[in-house]
Amino acid sequence: MTALSLVGNDRLSRRPWSLAIIWLVLLAAPYWMPFVGGYTALGTRVLVLGLAAMSLNFLLGFTGVLSFGHAAYFGLGAYGTGLTLKLLAPSTPLSLLLGTLLGGIAGALLGGLIVRRRGVYFAMVTIAFGQVFYYIAFRWNTLTGGDDGLRGFQRQPLHFGLFNWDIAGNADAFYYFVLLVFALATGLMALLLRSPFGRTLLAIRENERRARFLGIPIELHIWCAFVISCFFISLAGGLDALLNNFANPHELHYSQSGDLVIMAVMGGMRTFWGPLLGATLFVVLQDYVSSLTPNWMSFIGLLFVVVVLAFPRGLLGYLQRRRDA
Amino acid sequence: MTQLLLFNVTNGLIIGAFYVLMALGLSLILNLSGIINFAHGGFLALGGYIAYTLTTSVVPHLGIPKSEGFWVALAVAPLLTAALGIVIERFLIRRLYGRDPLYSLLLTFGLAFIFQDVTRFTWGAQGLPVSVPTYLAQPLSLDFFFLTGYRVFMVGTVAVAVALLFVLLRYTRVGIRIRAGTLDLDTVAALGVNVRRLRTINFAAGIYLAGLSGVLAGGQLGLDPTMGDGLLMPSFIAIIVGGVGSLTGTLLGGLLIGVASGVTSVFFPSASEAVIYIMMAAVLLVRPRGLLGEEGLLS
After folding, report:
1. Does residue B281 come out as left (phi exceeding 0), alpha (psi in the -120 to 50 range) or beta?
2. Across the interface, which of A123, A135, A300 has its CB nearest the CB of B101?
3. What is the distance in angstroms between the Cα of A164 and the nearest Cα belonging to chain B?
4. Could you report the predicted ipTM of this complex, rounded to two decimals?
5. Rounded to the nearest 5°, which phi and psi values hold at A247?
6. Which residue is closest to A141 within chain B, CA to CA?
7. Is A120 close to B117, i.e. CB distance below 8 A?
8. Domain locations along chain B
9. Cβ A301–B121 below 8 Å, yes or no?
10. One pLDDT digit (tens) per residue for chain B, 299 residues
11. C-alpha angle B77/B81/B87, rounded to 5°?
């Protein structure tokens, strides 16, 4: 492994042409997807879960801290967005903003309790706190609809004075809206990772003790990374609620956190774009396999086992290593 | 009111006993191998289902009266579950020792999916009963109708199993090595102990406890493929509350959260799940290492 890839500045994001290809593929998705048997909503779902997995990877791959409860913040974003649309105001941007704030603030509050733990213990505590929100969404029938999920809200078109952007009725328009949010969010994430703050996170990942001896306040940095990651993932959750016009309590369950982690690991958690690739594979495989067999759970389970034993670096990590060799 | 309270405290103790068995198994594996076994609930369900198959299909052919089949299942099913545990440890989990805990988490997570799907595929999604001998199923007294012989027997079995585990860990050579390995595995290895075999034995012991709780739970609540999942989270919390690294802490944590959720269900039923999380948050705030946890271990 070269020194440069060690600090996470992977080749893919340093080569302008590969970046251009990623964005071109994403921009043209509604046009080429029907030819390979896809549909626009599937593409939107890939973007939403890709953003979620990339947000988780901000913590997992770039800070080196394993959260296994991130589905909770994804779900909080979804419920916050849905409840805003349903109860407060029929405005898509406002609902997305409030949903993101809900998940982010919850992460900021709980993060204080969590950040002193490390490794497996950190994972256990994040799972357990995540389950709190699962039970709230599952039990508080009057507000959240309980097991049936939150219904009765619709994403609203955007108004810009002279013209309307009909993201409510037109699936392609909504895809581009999600792509715009995705681009802003991942751009911000990349900027953060290139800043001195992001470099410090990498230093903590590589050698926490050394970073501590250099006088870096470790807990504060991990808390910041945790909160940033929670904000981004609840934004993804909000987009998910807008996509389905529905919020599902099972999206907060820890098994969903496991899905998000495997997406990041499968794509390559030491790379910036890996989780998007992982999410794409996961969503497409799940969509395909669950249409073939009722035993798709075994299939997903096997996928976990195979990735862990055979491709622990993920696809992008594996490709990079082969090219380096 | 007193009776209702007693009823729920008893219920809490019984549920707490399950949390304890489950959490002790998880805790054994976590302490020595640094692995959170997400598939523990799957092993539990499997133990229960093996007991079901033994009582319905195997025991009648052996000339043992059907009502007594439960005893055979109780003796054999946990052993079979532990044997499966050994196979899985040897071929899958062993490869991940010493690696980032992320990988063992993901592996056991995938195994949990597979277990659930396989049990559903083999025995069906519908609930199945494990029949217990009739003399166990009767209430002990009319005033306390909820105190059936089976419930007393369950708590008794759990108590015996826990006591036996602690005695084994304290006085046998393997037990002492396991406890030493929890503190410093490198030194134990340097002293010539076969650490690989130690970990396998330890893993099997943990899975045995899961299988045992599966059989016991099957007799009380019946079987369904997801039965272990509901017990997994409280067991995590029992470990966190009691303190990672301390088996006594896990025991204490399991009983505490069992009784707490039992009592809460009298006064505020919808919060009986939330209360254990609140307890965990309180413990983490006041004493981050857990009630009896050791400072610095896995933190």
Report:
1. alpha
2. A123
3. 45
4. 0.83
5. -125, 135
6. B270
7. no
8. 20-230
9. no
10. 677 777 777 878 888 888 889 999 998 998 888 888 989 999 999 999 999 888 888 777 777 777 778 888 888 899 999 999 999 999 998 888 888 888 888 999 899 989 988 998 888 888 888 877 777 777 766 666 667 778 888 888 889 999 999 999 889 988 889 888 888 888 888 888 888 899 999 999 999 999 999 998 888 878 888 888 888 888 888 988 888 878 888 888 988 888 888 888 777 777 777 788 888 888 877 887 788 876 554 44
11. 145
Instruction: Name the residue in chain A with its Cα closest to that of B106.
Output: A304
Indicate yes or no: CB of B118 within 8 angstroms of CB of A298: yes
- Those of residues 257-296 in B touching chain A at CB distance below 8 A are 270, 273-274, 277, 280-281, 284-285, 288
Cβ atoms of residues B213 and B47 within 8 Å: yes
> In the numeric block, which tokens belong to residue A34?
């029907």
> Which domains, and CATH codes, for chain A?
3-26+39-324 (1.10.3470)
Q: Which residues in chain A have Cβ-Cβ distances shorter than 8 Å to B298?
A: 118-121
Q: Phi and psi at residue A235, in whole multiples of 5°?
A: -60, -45
Q: Which helix (H) or strand (E) holds A115?
A: none
Scan residues 95-114 of B and list those with Cβ closer than 8 Å to A.
95-96, 99-103, 105-107, 109-114
d(C-alpha A154, C-alpha A132), whole Å: 27
Q: Token match 């130690």: residue?
A: B198
Task: Answer yes or no: do A258 and B117 touch at CB < 8 A.
Answer: no
Whole-model pTM over 0.90: no
Cβ-defined contact of A135 to B236 (cutoff 8 Å): no
Interface of A with B (CB under 8 A): 60, 66, 68, 113, 116-121, 123-125, 127-129, 131-132, 135-136, 139, 254-255, 258, 261-262, 265, 295, 297-298, 300-305, 307-309, 312
**Residue with structure tokens 């076994």?**
B37
**CA of B273: which chain A residue's CA is closest?**
A135
Closest CA to B127 of B54, B220, B20: B220
Q: Which long-range contacts (CB under 8 A, 24 or more apart) does A160-166 make?
A: none
Q: Determine the 3-state secondary structure of B148 from DSSP.
A: strand
Tokens 């959490």 correspond to B23
